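Fill in residues.
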């Protein structure tokens, strides 16, 4: 595959780091980390299944876990509440008949018990608040947009309209330590350092819901691709 970027699809740094770690901890150490993270996945799945309003999108085969909600709340409010509790999570917009969901990637450094406690509290708040209701006029406006005709100014205006642009930093960059924890809280938040790192989550996940329509413009503006976890 050809890639015109300076470092192609992956830089050499992570590869060298992975090689160094594996040579340091050895095969036994790698197996211990694997056992720990897979046990964490099992505990997370059990915890999600214990919350009535949540349901898994699919049974995980590895360290990726995604879940959605029933009609009593939505994942965008849950994501915002988890953010306030210091956890970064990845809300994914509905697409091709699939519901909006919350996407997680675990590592051996993830404190699953702590996360589940925060998740339970966040779900309670989300249910109390109810699902996000988008004005029908906004839906019609977004559905009428032609992504190919959007100028940079149009794009910036759409981001600003939902609180995702501006000098305060509407998009959160990667600030991940070796333990998977966020090293620098975002400028707009006083939340404690994040336990799960993420690239590109909008400042307000609920605001992104305003652009969650089947049209191409919504996917373009929301820009929910290319996210990762610690």
């Amino acid at each position: 595959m050809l890639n015109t970027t300076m470092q192609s699809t992956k830089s050499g740094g992570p590869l060298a780091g992975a090689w160094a770690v594996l040579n340091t901890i050895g095969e036994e150490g790698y197996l211990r980390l694997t056992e720990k993270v897979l046990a964490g996945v099992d505990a997370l799945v059990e915890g999600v299944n214990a919350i009535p309003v949540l349901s898994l999108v699919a049974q995980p085969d590895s360290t990726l876990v995604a879940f959605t909600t029933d009609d009593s709340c939505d994942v965008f409010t849950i994501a915002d509440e988890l953010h306030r509790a210091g956890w970064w999570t990845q809300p994914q917009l509905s697409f091709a008949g699939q519901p909006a969901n919350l996407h997680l990637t675990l590592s051996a450094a993830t404190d699953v018990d702590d996360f589940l406690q925060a998740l339970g509290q966040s779900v309670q708040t989300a249910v109390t608040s109810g699902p996000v209701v988008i004005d029908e006029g906004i839906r019609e406006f977004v559905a009428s947009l032609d992504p190919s005709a959007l100028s940079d100014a149009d794009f910036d205006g759409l981001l600003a309209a939902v609180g995702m642009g501006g000098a305060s930093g509407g998009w959160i960059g990667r600030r991940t330590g070796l333990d998977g924890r966020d090293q620098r809280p975002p400028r707009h938040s006083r939340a404690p350092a994040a336990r799960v790192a993420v690239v590109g989550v909008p400042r307000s996940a609920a605001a992104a819901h305003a652009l969650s329509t089947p049209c191409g413009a919504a996917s373009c503006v929301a820009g929910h691709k290319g996210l990762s976890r610690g």
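The radius of gyration is 19 Å.
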